[in-house]
Amino acid sequence: MDLHKKIKENISNKKDEYVQFLQKVIQQPSTTGNELEAQTLVADRLREKGLDVDVWIPDYDELTKSKYFNPRRDNYENSPNVVGVLKGKEAGRSLILNGHIDVVPAGDKSLWTNDPYSGEVIDGKLYGRGTTDMKGGNMATLIALETVIDLGVELKGDVIYESVIEEETGGAGTLAAIQRGYKADVAIIPEPSEMRIFPKQQGSLWFKVTVKGISAHGGTRYEGVSALEKGWIVFREIMDLEEKRNEPLRKDPLYKDNPIPIPINIGQFNGGIFPSSVAEEATIQGRYGVAPGETIEEAKEEFLAMLDNLKKIDDWFETYPATVEWGGIHLPPGGCELDHPMLEILKKKFVEVEQEEPIIAGSTWGTDGGLLTEAGGIPSIVFGPGTTSMAHFTDEYVELDKLFKTAEIITLAIIEWCEIASIKK
């Protein structure tokens, strides 16, 4: 029996076991600050497979030494990182399989068909918060790694399995793993790409723009200046900036089918304190896409230039300039060269499994791949199961068939990339 056939058979024979384990992980509501129980399940399973397992609480003081760290809390109690290493037998090419265990909150549970942490399986889909983003992807890479072990394949290079915390709120987990010394020649991140292959990932920043006005009684509002009205000017300029920044990317083959490759999303526009008062202050908060190949500093400079230009549109901003604060998500863009050998391997193995060419595209959301690439110097590729449109949504799910297909493809990619030193069985 050839090796690929053994891989398919091994995965097929253990599907029920894999589904049950994924359900256990989904049933742990591992929101930021509550990752311990889910991480304990992962660490125990890695130990059972004979990996060298490292479990540690990220060090806040150490994290602050990195320019990529944007603090969201001052300690990481109950939020351990977990890394398992399958040591290679020779000095072969190494690989990181990186995925975050943290999930966004479930929101109003009454809107879910089933409990958001049920792990219910219906019509080939496993439901629950985090199934798509990204515990399903983590399961796919874990299956791939376990399949290599189950078949007795000894690799030349190391495979490093990283289950990290706090991607959803800034990437502290992956940054801590880089600082701890975990490096490799390339990384695969099984975020929900719908089995598309993303060699380029945009970065993202959160921003808060403050706009000033002059308060007055609503009955004589002409005596004041509404920060909300001035805020609309800022809003329009932000949207114009989005168009300006996206126009060149629409010519990029990786983004040719995407109407807004690097969106600027306004999530909150607030102002005023009372219905009968002119708003003295308004705030505009949002998420700012950073283009592949662009630095965070360059992206910020373009935003600041837009704010500075407001005074040419309305002289109000000469005396009362709009200001910006950067906080929350602070992820740089990441990726790999389009001729990277791992990208070619993934393409080839996708065709081998699916009997069709994969879609190669650029992501419209940030991932920990940006930190791996920029802070760690590690080329990164996003490839995973999961329905992108369901990430952070009610009734989130992952299609099990795609999860297992992804696992099969990644198993083959691991073996070709790290190379076989020997087969024990």
Provide a descriptive summary of the structure in words.
Strands 1, 2, 3, 7, 8, 9, 14, 15 and 16 form a nine-stranded mixed β-sheet that branches. The chain has helices spanning 3-13, 15-26, 36-48, 60-63, 131-150, 172-179, 227-246, 296-313, 316-319, 341-354, 369-374, 400-418; strands at 52-56, 81-86, 95-100, 121-122, 125-127, 153-155, 159-164, 186-189, 197-201, 203-212, 264-271, 281-290, 323-331, 334-335, 360-363, 380-383, 397-399, 420-423. It is elongated, with a radius of gyration of 23 Å. The mean pLDDT is 95. It starts with a helix and ends with a strand. The chain folds into two domains: 3-201 and 333-423, 3-Layer(aba) Sandwich (Aminopeptidase); 204-331, Alpha-Beta Plaits (2-Layer Sandwich), CATH 3.30.70. The protein is an alpha+beta fold and 425 residues long.
